[in-house]
Amino acid sequence: GMEPTALMGHSVGEFVAACVAGVFSLEDGLKLIAARARLMDSVPRDGIMAAVFAPEKRVAAVIAPYASELAIAAVNGPGSVVISGRKAAVANVLQQLAREGVKAKELQTSNAFHSPVMDPILEEFAAVASTVTFSSPKITVVSNLTGAVATGDALMTADFWAKHLRGCVAFESGLKAMQKVGVNCFVECGPNPVCISMGRRV
Predict the structure, then answer these.
(1) How far apart (Å, rounded) are the C-alpha atoms in residues 120 and 47?
(2) 105/60 Cα distance (integer angstroms)
(3) pLDDT 10s digit of each residue in the chain, 202 long?
(4) SS3 for 25?
(5) Alpha-carbon torsion 39, 66, 145, 8, what sign?
(6) Which residues have CB under 8 Å from 24's CB, separation 6+?
């Protein structure tokens, strides 16, 4: 009987949020998720992700020379950033951060999501997304891509969902946007309480 004021996800969770908000049907949502997984699985497995415990600006400065190989994949909090990209580039960045006294930890993922490693599949994923029937959200959705409330037809284009696959997850900004629309109680729906612990730190 609980009714949400607003919805947001983290990466793939945004598909769930959009589906619950009525942006697309469950069937279309599953079509998108299946295509996303299939295409991600087709990319050569030469990428890794790592959590870096430092402010976004500091991490951005360190990774700047490797812009074609890696990216900031998520900003989860004021000192919690995830980088993602080709193994050699990420290893070089982690070595530099270690020399500067910054703590980091490689994540157990199958590839480098939300990074340039995903570029080869964006066009094909956009083609799949163009076959989906989109509608205006019936519940407010805060988007990972912007870290703000999705307005107008923002969630209703194939281009948005292709960019979402590649872009940075603006989780910290999204939580702050939720507060601005009056949300003061957050409920995480998922198999493990990962987002809620990050939320507490924000």
Answers:
(1) 13
(2) 17
(3) 888 999 999 999 999 999 999 999 999 999 999 999 999 999 988 899 999 999 999 999 999 999 999 999 999 999 999 999 999 999 999 999 999 999 999 999 989 999 999 999 999 999 999 999 999 999 999 999 999 999 989 999 999 999 999 999 999 999 999 999 999 999 999 888 889 889 988 8
(4) coil
(5) positive
(6) 18, 32, 132, 133, 134, 135
